Amino acid sequence: MSLEESEKRLADYAKEFGARESDMSFMKQLLHTVAAKQKEIDEVIVRAAPEWPIEKIAAIDRNVLRLGLAELLYADRTQVPAKVAINEAIELAKTFGSNSSGRFVNGVLGAVYIELGEPGKSEGAARKKAAQKTGKMPTEHLAGAVVYAQSGGETYLAFVHDIFGHWTISKGKIEENEDVQKGAAREIKEEMGLDIKIVEELGVNEYIANDSKVDGGKKRKRVTYFLAEAPFTELRLGPSGGLDDAQWFPLSAVGDLNFYDDTLKIIIPAINVLAQKGKK
Questions:
Q1: At 192, which CATH number?
Q2: 174: DSSP letter
Q3: Mutual orientation of helices 59-74 and 82-96 as an angle, nearest 10°?
Q4: CA distance 197 to 228
């Protein structure tokens, strides 16, 4: 079915079920997103539900997942919070699918939500209260770096791409008793094949993550980010799980990339530092 035919069918269904005219713009945008990103969305479904070949998933469940993932991965989270997208998909599956559809959709979208770092969970007073109780939680230390290089008079930044369609900062777990800067350098070498020189620290990001292997089912993750310089050489993506690409981007093109909000909070200061260096 072509996109034009899909739009016509959407309009027919909207009329039949009495959808508000004010909702049509959002519904059309969601349809366009699913159509444009179907390949990437289906790859996420395959990774989140490896025991279910996508062609074997019931049509209703498969398409509800596509809608839910389109909102979860690509929608403006200020307009469609992650948990709202998941709950709406679950309700659709319960209404139009089988008795097990709601549980299946919940399982797949829940797995993706956790992999994304549970976006939106940190908002509000409830998260602040939880943060005050993290003293007894195990802490996992990670480190990463915004890596830059100079070539032909231009500045380039290196990023890795995850299976959920976002470019992000290369990072990884710090080993026990390992120096955090040395750990960051090791992770960048393993993940992108680059030898880096740490320039300065950019900041620290802390968040709570689910982990069924620890008491209480939760742990605190503390990520230290650095700005680092490297030679402008070919990137070699390592065997890290959840990543499918690594590329250099000219500084002028970075603004067009799809980043997570918390990643931008680290990248923007890095760009500001590089801009100041360029003025000297």
A1: 3.90.79.10
A2: P
A3: 170
A4: 5
pLDDT of 42 over the 60 cut:
yes
pLDDT at 242 over 60: yes
- pLDDT, position 66: 94
Q: In terms of residue numbers, what domain contains 106?
A: 3-115
Q: Cα torsion for 221, 224, 229, 231, to the nearest 10°?
A: -20
> Does 170 share its domain with 99?
no
- How many domains does the chain divide into? 2
What CATH code is carried by the domain that includes residue 48?
A: 1.10.940.10
Structure tokens at 17: 């079920």
Residue 182: in which H helix or E strand, if any? Answer: helix 180-192
Q: Compute the distance between CA of residue 32 and CA of residue 25 in angstroms, rounded to an integer.
A: 11
* Dihedral in degrees, nearest 10, Cα atoms 164, 169, 173, 179: 180
Q: For residues 207 and 122, is the Cβ–Cβ distance under 8 A?
A: yes
* Separation between Cα atoms, residue 72 and residue 164, nearest integer Å: 10
Q: What pLDDT digit, counting tens, does each position of 167-198 carry? A: 999 999 999 899 999 999 999 999 999 999 99
Average pLDDT of the chain is 85
Q: Identify whether residues 137 and 258 lie together within a single domain.
A: yes
The confidence score (pLDDT) of residue 219 equals 83
239: its two tokens: 């065997």
Pull the structure tokens for residue 112: 């993706």
- For residue 200, give the 3-state DSSP assignment: strand
Does the residue 152 lie in any domain?
yes
CA triplet 214, 216, 218: central angle to 5 degrees?
70
Give the predicted TM-score (pTM) of the model.
0.57
Q: Looking at the structure, do residues 91 and 184 belong to the same domain, yes or no?
A: no
Mean pLDDT computed over 57-70:
93
